[in-house]
Write a structure and sequence with these properties.
The protein has helices at about 5-20, 25-30, 45-60, 80-85, 85-105, 125-130, 170-185, 220-225, 250-255, 280-290, 300-320, and strands at about 65, 75, 135-140, 150-160, 165-170, 195-200, 200-210, 240-245, 265, 270-280, 295-300. By secondary structure, the chain is of the alpha+beta class. The protein folds into three domains: about 5-105; about 120-225; about 240-320, Alpha-Beta Plaits (2-Layer Sandwich). The model has no long low-confidence stretch (mean pLDDT about 90). This is Transcriptional regulator. It comes from Prevotella amnii DNF00058.
Length: about 325
């Protein structure tokens, strides 16, 4: 499939998604002005349009239907399904921006991106290993580690957090070590060890000839249950966090929640109070501290005390 064809599929899908319902004539008027047409002012032939619809259903599993009773307007069937699929929505949004930049070179230098190391160069190898269930051999240097280490991993899932890519993998080495230790202690011999690796900390990677079978018992939703970000520590229980935020910052938290469990439980003329059910891990405290003096943890007392400890330590640095 040619890259320019993919761009046209995404344009058509995104256009109907934004406009809700469009006739074929309305779609063509928007297409001619898009800068992606086949020639200067060329419209989409009807046959090509239907071919694009078919390709969109095959690639994205999204169906563009026609409502004969509403002036033959085209619409996305079950748009809530597309909206709830974060991966497809992210891919479509990203390619839509790329379409606009390619269509209008005047915008090329006016769109600024945050330069964050992501490790995206390893994605192809990881996805191939996931698809073929092959073991990866990686050289990895964790944050704060003076030297790198090389070892095997069995890649299960990819995760994006704050534009950084991570691979969640079963560690054969630590799993086997746990099994030996547990067997000696008379415990559970099937104690598999799963770890999250930041792709920007990977120094080298190779696909091996070894195969693995993904554990059917592994549940990704359960693994990250109550987690704010990348730290999945089951030893830290899920807590009910009550967070009060003052205006106007509370509107930002309302539009971009800290966690999917966040909901409003009270509000007045000056503030909004939110409730979250999360594990108060270090990365969650980092997110709370990022709210500066515009938010306060009301409950539980243990989290309040930990926030107090962080802020006292910060104050000590600035007293020097």
């Amino acid at each position: 499939m040619a890259a320019n064809n993919l761009g046209r599929y995404v344009w058509l899908l995104d256009t109907i998604r934004r406009h809700k319902r469009l006739t074929f004539e309305e779609i063509n008027r928007l297409w001619v002005c898009s800068g992606l047409s086949y020639g200067e002012g060329d419209e989409i032939p009807l046959r090509t349009f239907h071919n694009h619809r078919k390709a969109i259903s095959d690639i994205f599993d999204v169906y563009i239907e026609c409502d004969n009773k509403d002036g033959y307007r085209y619409y996305i069937d079950a748009p809530e399904k597309l909206k709830s699929d974060s991966l497809r929505s992210w891919l479509i949004d990203s390619y839509s921006v790329l379409n606009q930049v390619q269509a209008d070179k005047k915008l090329e230098g006016r769109i600024l991106f945050e330069d964050i190391p992501s490790g995206h160069e390893w994605l192809t190898n990881i996805m191939q290993a996931m698809r073929e269930e092959k073991v990866l051999y990686i050289t990895y240097q964790g944050f704060g580690k003076p030297i790198e280490n090389s070892f095997e991993i069995e890649p299960y899932y990819l995760k994006v957090i704050n534009r950084r890519w991570y691979v969640l993998a079963r560690s054969p080495y630590y799993s086997e070590r746990n099994q030996r230790q547990n067997k000696e202690d008379g415990g559970n011999p099937l104690a598999d060890d799963y770890r999250l690796y930041a792709l920007d900390r990977v120094l080298d990677m190779a696909l091996t000839d070894k195969h693995f079978k993904m554990k059917k018992s592994f549940d990704i939703e359960e693994y990250f249950e109550g987690c704010y970000g990348i730290i999945a520590n089951k030893n830290i229980p899920i807590e009910r966090i009550v967070l009060k935020a003052w205006k106007p910052h509370c509107y930002y938290l309302e539009s971009l929640p800290l966690h999917h469990s966040q909901r409003i439980i009270a509000q007045d003329d000056e503030s909004i109070t939110f409730e979250l059910n999360v594990r108060p891990t270090f990365d969650f405290y980092q997110a709370l501290l990022a709210q500066t003096d515009m938010a306060e943890v009301l409950e539980p007392e243990s989290v309040r005390q930990e926030m107090k400890r962080f802020t006292e330590n910060m104050l000590y640095h600035y007293k020097k």
